[in-house]
Amino acid sequence: MAAGFLRPCRFFYACGDGSGWMEWRPMIACRWVGQKIGVFLLGVVLASAFTYAAEPTINLVDGFDFPVGKPNAEGFYKSRGLRLREPKHLGEDWNGRAGGNSDLGAPVFAIGDGIVTFAHNVRAAWGNVVITRHAYRDTANGKIKYCDALNGHLNAILVKVGQRIKRGQPIGSIGTNFGMYPAHLHFELRHNITIGMARNSVSVDLNNWADPSEFINKHRRMNREWRAVSLPVGTYQVYAGFKGL
Ligand SMILES: [Zn+2]
């Protein structure tokens, strides 16, 4: 009976009209479609497994520069430094020496070679934020370490999540968070690469945050190494609907 014969294949059920020779055609088509779907699903599984396994590789930095007044913060001063106790300030504020909003739109530079892990206007007190991730060899023990550099209140974002950046490359410009503050760069350096925008997710201490100027001054020039290392990604929580790398 045609209807019973055709029932296994929902796609071709409507094709069967019950005449003799029509009965086997949908079944063959059905098997063909089944095979194609099987191959497609296998491809999806393999592709997702491959994607999941493939972390980006990156070269270790050959040194870190300051994020403004490339490369030594020339023309800029630190108006606020790192403070881990109340009133807390988890980074540094950089302002132009000429004062006021004279630094509005001045370029903010990548402190080292790396990858952009976050680049969004998250609004509220932050505005435009760019976070970059860097790999370096710890001079104390020779181990490979990672750090994140957060740049807040930017006037413009010049990079995208996942983009590779070179030391000194402009990644944004100094802003006011759309008029909320006098123009300045809020700059944080984190040893803990899970923080992202969730600053309350970890304890406020020097295991998680670095003193930015101290860290940069300690790592101005490092040996160039040509062997790439894999860079951890997927370390951030989604923040206000925005995802990092
Ligand atoms: Zn600040």
If you had to describe this structure to a student in words, what would you say it looks like?
By secondary structure, the protein is of the alpha+beta class. The chain folds into two domains: 2-53, no CATH class; 57-230, Glucose Permease (Domain IIA) (Distorted Sandwich), CATH 2.70.70. Helices cover 19% and strands 25% of the residues. The chain has helices at residues 2-6, 24-53, 69-73, 212-218, and strands at residues 57-58, 76-80, 92-96, 107-109, 114-121, 128-137, 144-154, 156-157, 164-165, 170-173, 185-190, 209-210, 229-230. The strands form three sheets. Strands 2, 3, 5, 6, 7, 9, 11 and 12 form an eight-stranded antiparallel beta sheet that branches. It has a three-stranded antiparallel beta sheet with strand order 4-10-8, with no helix packed on it. A two-stranded antiparallel ribbon has the order 1-13. The longest helix is centred in the first third of the chain and has 30 residues, at 24-53. The relative contact order is 0.17. The protein binds zinc ion. Residues 80, 89, 91, 93, 186 line the site of zinc ion. The site of zinc ion has 5 residues, from loops.
